Amino acid sequence: MRTHFAEVLARESACLAGVTDGAKLASWRRRVVEELMTPLSPYEFALRHTGDVPERADFLDRWRELIAETVDRLLRSGTTGDTDSSSGRTRRADVDAQKTAMLILAALHGGSTLSRIAKDPWPLNAALDLALAPFTAAEDDSPARTGTSSLIGNIKP
Amino acid sequence: MTTADSHNGRRLTARGAKTRTRIVAAATDLMYVKGVRATTLDDVLAASGVSKSQLYHHFDGKDALVRAVIDNVGERVIERERDALGHVSTIRGLRRWRDTLVQSNALRHGAYGCALGSLASEVSDHDALARQALSRLFTEWQGLLAGVLRRLQDSGALPPEASADQLATGLMAALQGGYMLAQTAHDVTPMATAIDMALAHIESLSER
């Protein structure tokens, strides 16, 4: 397997294994966003779409599997955003770890492409806000949420 | 009859415009199927049947040709999406939009992905003009999705406090990432799953 694929998998394997609650998920996310926004980092390189290499398929399958294990662990430990009963009868039972992992991987892939052409982490953060919503609804501290809109919200007339 | 050449400002004769269109059409097809990097100017010459001097008359080099391909693909995609999304005002309409994209990608087992997204993932960092053109096109596409979400808010199907722009961008990322995963897997399922999950989240906001 190509070096950047192997390096990302090694780091993700170690980092995702330590994600046991919402706060750790948030720091995983911040680190991955930083990696993906760094030109020529192994992460940025691994998610660049450069031809149809079989290793890419294997790499993406394994990363998705690592994310799915993490999602599953968080679901079983009860880490979802919906701790407040008024905000919903959601979702823990409804959340499918494999499908959620697919959305998270798609968000990383598509979000980093949009962020790269925009030279701005905002699209990637918006993508992850949506993909990680089942786990962050109660925390609401994600970068794309704490932008201009919350500043405007704080302004008193 | 003359037509302005958008890249060098020269006026083109009708025959010149036709030659230019032929070059851009051949380059668009090649770059979609083979990728931007793997497409050489010699490939474009062979596929379009124009001479080298004709090609260089219209384009300084590959970067200029890539920008013309971005304009061409962008125009097509935005027109298609404006037709598809311009009047959508329900979640059901959004799902029909999803169905069309997934079904047309399934015909090719996800082999080629989104024409605009493929250009975005391949465009080189050194070409700021190409990057900015792509960024503008995606902003326009996301604007169409945000328009749908605002119409959902107007009808009460989506709560007013949800950020339409942020959700539209998240949905676009899921769509583009889905295309890329489907292309790698030679299977449209990852794309279908990614959009379905994103749409399910948007729908769940109205249930809270």
Automatic annotation (TrEMBL), chain A:
* Gene3D superfamilies xrefs: Tetracycline Repressor, domain 2
Check the record and name the InterPro entries matching this protein: Tet_transcr_reg_TetR-rel_C_sf (IPR036271)
What protein am I looking at? Tetracyclin repressor-like C-terminal domain-containing protein
The organism encoding this protein is Microbispora bryophytorum
From TrEMBL, chain B:
Start-end of DNA-binding region: 40-59
The GO terms describing molecular function are:
DNA binding
Q: Which SUPFAM superfamilies match?
A: Homeodomain-like, Tetracyclin repressor-like, C-terminal domain
Domain named HTH tetR-type is located at 17-77
Spell out the Pfam families in the cross-references. Answer: TetR_C_13_2 (PF21993), TetR_N (PF00440)
PROSITE patterns xrefs:
HTH_TETR_2 (PS50977)
Gene3D superfamilies given in the database record = Tetracycline Repressor, domain 2 (1.10.357.10)
Return the InterPro entries for the record: Homeodomain-like_sf (IPR009057), HTH_TetR (IPR001647), Tet_transcr_reg_TetR-rel_C_sf (IPR036271), YxaF_TetR_C (IPR054156)
Per UniProt, which keywords does this protein have?
DNA-binding, Transcription, Transcription regulation
Q: What protein name applies here?
A: Transcriptional regulator
Q: Which organism is it from?
A: Microbispora bryophytorum
